[in-house]
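Input chain follows. Return structure tokens only.
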Amino acid sequence: MAGQGMLTLAIKEKPALYAAYMPFVTNGGLFIPTEKAYKLGDQVFLLLSLLEDSDRLPTPCTVVWITPPRAQGNRLRGIGVQFNQSDKGVTHRRIEEHLGGMLNSDRKTHTF
């Protein structure tokens, strides 16, 4: 099916999770580096591994952000995905539990 895709992402360190997390997206989201072309609104299925967690979070997502090749400021090419409502906030909560106080940081991320 066009626009469908399966993505796997393993984030092993808190600074990398902070840089990828998109807290400004309703229900939460993540930036995923990828060379593959997507369009806004594409549906993807993300298998996410966080830090030391042994289980992968299966998360249906929608593409809501695109950083194209050769983006201004040498930004990493990739997509930002929004966790779908069917996730019921599970992925969003797990990420915020891992990040804790880092959420108030003014460090740069992949999207800001």
